[in-house]
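Lab notebook, bench 4. Continuing the backlog of folding jobs that were queued last week. Each job is logged with the same field layout so the records can be merged later without manual cleanup. Today's entry covers Pyruvate dehydrogenase E1 component alpha subunit, a 365-residue chain. Filled in by technician R.K.

JOB TYPE: sequence-to-structure
TARGET: Pyruvate dehydrogenase E1 component alpha subunit
LENGTH: 365
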Amino acid sequence: MRSVSGENLVQLLTPEGTRAAGPYDEWVADIDGARLQGLYEDMVVVRRVDQEATALQRQGELALWPPLLGQEAAQIGSGRALRKDDFVFSSYRENGVAYCRGADYTDMIRVWRGNAPSGWDPYEINMATPQVIIGAQALHATGYAMATKFDGADSVAVAYFGDGATSQGDVNEAMVFAASFQAPVVFFCQNNQWAISEPVTLQAQRDIADRAPGFGIPSVRVDGNDVLGCMAVTREALDRARSGGGPSFIEAVTYRMGPHTTADDPTRYRDPNELEDWKGRDPIDRLAKLLEAEGLLAGDFTDRVNAKADEVAGLLRHGCVTLPEPGELDVFNNVYTTPHPVLERQREHYSRYLASFEAAGGGKR
Ligand SMILES: Cc1ncc(C[n+]2csc(CCOP(=O)(O)OP(=O)(O)O)c2C)c(N)n1
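JOB STATUS: finished
OUTPUT FIELD FOLLOWS
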């Protein structure tokens, strides 16, 4: 059984909330008390976003939601390491990263409400809209990184994906290209232990991070519930990419504490003791312990963080329930930039189908 707290794991903040010294310290030397408080606020807010969206799904306001509960440190630590002109290619679970990029809350949920085929304008926040095809975004990120290199820019592309995605051809093909072209791309794998009901131990006989060196890509394993560790290794990888050192692979060892999506029931395949073990490694609790020990978790700070979380949750809920209903034929818009005969035929069929209800007396569809 592979360790989740072993010697090969970068860890700067222990589950007990103490700082663990190590060679990666220099990468977070600027993270003073105020910045630690900022990371704590981010994690509390994105957990609240996640809880609010989950509640909205349970209340029938969203069709589906992919929770990030437990993965806040991996997403905030890495997300806050990025520069504005870096470009993120994520899966559906990186709502914490989207928060760091400045995504509008309504844009985060319009797809999950079924109101739109996509959420935000990628070029406004330098983050592509979430990819549901497992691992495809690794190729997109690599292509983008190759282009940045050809353009002579020093921005970096970051691909976020899960442990399951590393078994997809796309991720492996992306690594071949990234290594061949020394593309400035960071592969950030959140190993949350499960690919829906498949445990990581089934698909990986060795650490996920061991795969990348076979492609010629340096890799690191980090405690994914340690926000400082995640920030440090991401900063190092970004620095390598910016300075011409090519791609890097990060395995953030974390845990999906909730279901895969709100349509999933993990009690059918997961040992409840496993969840209990991971609760002891909660990413927010451990930073709270450190802040408390340093006298930085005083009442007014906690009040401000909670007020911010309430405000964001309120904006998310308001944006969700006030989204205008899309037009009946809107689904056919913006699929292709130029007219497409197959799509036109489908639009026409669907129009006739809708009209048939009118012909039958305008009954409810
Ligand atoms: C190419 C492809 N195959 C299968 C699926 C169905 N699918 C959706 S999520 C998922 C599991 C992904 O697990 P992982 O990559 O570990 O990411 P996580 O959901 O744990 O964040 C699968 C197989 C898909 N969306 N795309």
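OBSERVATION: The first strand starts at residue 9 and ends at 10.
SIGNED: R.K.
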